[in-house]
Model the fold of this input.
Amino acid sequence: MLKEFTPVDTAAVAKESYRLQTRNDLDPLMERIGDARYVLLGEATHGTHEYYTWRAEISKRLIREKGFSFIAVEGDWPDCFEINRWVKEYPGAGGTIKDVLHQFDRWPTWMWANWEIAALAQWLQQHNSNLAPNRKVGFYGLDVYSLWESIEIIVDYLEKEDPATAAYARKAVDCFEPYGEEESYASAISAMAPSCKEEVLKLLQEVRLKAPRYDSDPEAGLNAEMNALVTANAEKYYRTMASFHGNSWNVRDLHMVETLNALMQYHGPDAKVIVWEHNTHIGDARATSMPDRGLLNVGQLVREQHKPEEVVLVGFGSYQGSVIAGRSWGAPMKKMEVPAAKEHSVEEILHAASPENKLLIFDNKPTLQDVFGSWLGHRAIGVVYNPESERGNYVPTKLTSRYDAFLYLDKTQALHPLRLHPDSHLTPETFPFGI
Done:
């Protein structure tokens, strides 16, 4: 897909870019967002400090200046709902944000149990403190992985609040009980064991029907419905993953959009959402090589479902630095060096233009459209990373079609997991609390 490289006028690229050093330098992005209701913020890795802190600054401005309703992230619903309860100061929400984040125990824990999220959560709680309950800004997870946690939450809640519907939940539990873990369930499916599809769909139908009546705890109905949705779609996800048919990636991203749509409906016709996910989810898949493999993603689906002026996709990338990741799935988290971007990639071109942070807004920028409207490699690092084979982590991309705007951060540092004490040189703005 990538063609022979054409020399780039790097001076013109630099001229059409905006400087990016302080929160005030985000003004052009705020103007570009305008009255959009869906702002999707990406990241090129799941373990980079600056991606989290710049997304936090953008989110704060959107909340303060444009009245955004909630943040939805690439995280599990049950864990993120506990952050939501804490930032809204619901009864029994827990002591400190550190206590809440220590509950995140599914690998990769560092994605949300980190000091950067702790700082954002404290800001959200302070922002919410003087607002009416229906105006408080929420924090929710969109992902599909929490099958067992969601089943457990549903059963515990329904046993107390809705014994009739709890009968459906118990049937789902009885179905899943022999498997015990997600991996063994997937293995059983591949060995032609009966699936639990019928039971979880019945549960979802009943919970959706009765969710408006669940009002003993703030957002109880929403929590019950979303956990039921996770249960239904997680069953489908693991069943698809274990088979030779279908595509588990698509099941996952379709679930995240279904959850997002349910949250928007719950928050009302004037709701606005900020989404935090990896570039591979929020950047329009149609501007990458993903369609060649039959893949779609969240960014594509949100664009297809809404008017162009309602959706803004913002990508992120960097030239070099360090990152938190594991060398294999489930491996211990480790700080790793990210080498300089490969030649003729998006990141290398922006570094050559000037080795400093930049904001790119693609509208009415002829040089940016010319350079980044063609196929270029764009780095993507996941939770599993091996620096020695890093040159394979580049996605063929038409950057100006994949995103509406792009934050380039020349040199970045690793995220700060909660289970590691932050370095002493970290700024008070990032960590404004004494822990």
Observations:
- The chain has two domains: 10-146+248-412, 147-247.
- Residues 147-247 form one domain.
- The radius of gyration is 22 Å.
